[in-house]
Amino acid sequence: MNVKAEPLVPKVFISYNWTDVAHKERVREWADRLFGDGVNVIIDIYDLRPGDDKIVFMEKMVQDPTITHVLLVCDQSYVEKADARQAGVGIEALIVSQEVYKKTAQSKFVSIFCEFNDDGEPYLPTFIASRIGFNFTSPEKVNETWEDLVRFLNGQPRFTKPALGKKPAYLTQNTTLPTSGVTAKIRSLENGLKQGKTTVPLLREDFFDACVSYVDELRIREEPNVDDWGQRIISDYEKLKPIRNFLVDWLLLESTLRGNEEDFSETLIDLLERVLALRFRTEEVTRFNDKWWTAHSLFVYEVFLYFVAVLIKTKSFSTLNVIFETKYILPPSERHTGTDYGSFAKFHASAGDDLNNSLSNGEPNCHSPAAKLIKRHSDRTDLPFKDIMQADLLVLLVSQLRDIRWYPQTLYYVDFYPNFEFFVRAAQRKNFKKLAIITEVKSGDALREKLKTTEISSGRGWHPLTIDFAQALNLEKLDTV
Fold first, then answer.
1. What is the CA radius of gyration of the chain?
2. What is residue 173's predicted lDDT score, i.e. its pLDDT?
3. At a CB cut-off of 8 Å and minimum separation 6, what does 203 contact?
4. What is the mean pLDDT of residues 412-419?
5. How far apart are CA 442 and CA 452, in angstroms?
């Protein structure tokens, strides 16, 4: 049985000068206040008895290893005696100065300064004049500084240095195109959005153009000389990651600040159609292999999942409904046999053996190299991979209600007992209303009825996925609490 160690109680000796009765009383009040805040104080008022040798007492307190801190209460009189080595203060100063000079990095001896000189500098003994102390020059300053003093004595500062994080991913990415242009565009747009500038539509369009141009320049238009297509796909995909992050940053901000929901949804649909077109060949390319655009297809798939995750996070439920019900205009190269539009399923993508072989590193082949690559790149702390899986699960739910095929690849990484916050909360009737806005199904009973004949309830058609989708969706509990 582990016994939790008791926190160390700070033990403090106060060194001061009996300048006058008022000063002595102020120091006693500070000592009492420290007692009240859990600091064990040693001070002559309470601890020096008749018959005790005050010189020995002071020497012992300064040198006692159980004393965690010595507070030097400095006013003009204290400093004059300390520098001149006069009386008891002078003796203490002699001992303290030796300790301070021996240890340049020490925090045991700390000044509490009570007066300023004519130059506006605090009265401090020479041996400690360059050390940082606490300003007690007025009752207001005492109150302002008190918490910092108590925190210091307890070794619990107000601010702690953060842990050293990982280098930003963009420092290790092998990009052939600079992203500085896109960075400048999004910074201008962010500034415009936050300040409510009338130029936001123009700034937004500039940002979208910069993102699309960057991704388009990485599209293959002529047959490349490639020995390892898996590594080429990974390399191109890594180069697209900064744009994913820029787009996600934009959506997080704009969906939080959104004004008119209809205008916001229209803007998002226009962007999604432009992003979707980037996964297909351009019209001038007539001889090609589909693997040329695998990286771009995975980028489009990933952006769509991240967008869904962002809209869940920012409670943009009406907008989610719109992106699921929209028929997206396809690029000219994909308009064949009279098909000009496609559902959100067009954003879905997978990858074949080339990528699988490059990702396996001699290990057994994974069921979804696309999901493995997305998981590998899921390093945003504001949208962890579980949020992306939750988004994939929501897309699956909507696809089943609309009779659209969607294979939820990221859910290969779901734990044996999945627990997705959005669906856990949707057990409450007040939170199910959010899901109802997205799905247009008004009650949990109606939703369960609609899903009775689907793959979610029957488990058909999902090999080799073994997840219980009804459990992941919290299906039986939805709208019941």
1. 34
2. 45
3. 185, 188, 189, 192, 197
4. 79
5. 16
CA distances from 164 to 64, 158, 159, 169, 382 (A): 37, 19, 15, 15, 18
Return the residue matching tokens 């010189």. Answer: 55
User: Of 323, 294, 295, 326, nearest to 309 (Cα)?
Assistant: 323
What is the residue type of 279? Answer: R
Does residue 58 contact residue 72 with C-beta atoms inside 8 Å? no
Burial of 102 (0-12, 13-18, 19+ CB in 10 A): exposed
Whether the predicted pLDDT of 56 surpasses 80: no
On the CB side of 475, CA atoms within 13 Å amount to: 19
Asked if 322 and 334 touch (Cβ cutoff 8 Å), the reply is no
Report how far residue 37's alpha carbon sits from residue 31's, in angstroms, rounded to the nearest whole number: 10
String of b and e for 7-46 (b: at least 16 CB within 10 Å)? eeebbbbbbbbebeeebeebbbebbeebeeeebebbbbee
**Could you read off the pLDDT of 336-374 as tens digits, one per residue?**
767 899 999 999 998 877 777 777 664 555 678 889 899
Q: Which amino acid is at 381?
A: T
Question: Which residues share a beta bridge with 328?
Answer: 342
Q: What is the Cα–Cα distance from 469 to 389, expressed in whole angstroms?
A: 12
Closest CA to 95 of 70, 66, 68: 70
Cis-peptide, bond into residue 168, ω within 30° of zero: no
- Angle at which helix 294-313 crosses helix 317-325, to 10 degrees, equals 150
pLDDT tens across 425-461, in order? 999 999 999 999 999 999 999 999 999 988 887 665 5
Instruction: Compute CA 286 distance to the chain's CA centroid, rounded to the nearest angstrom.
Output: 45
Tell me the C-alpha distance between 63 and 13, whole Å.
10
Q: Is the pTM of this model over 0.85?
A: no
Cβ atoms of 26 and 18 within 8 Å: the answer is: no
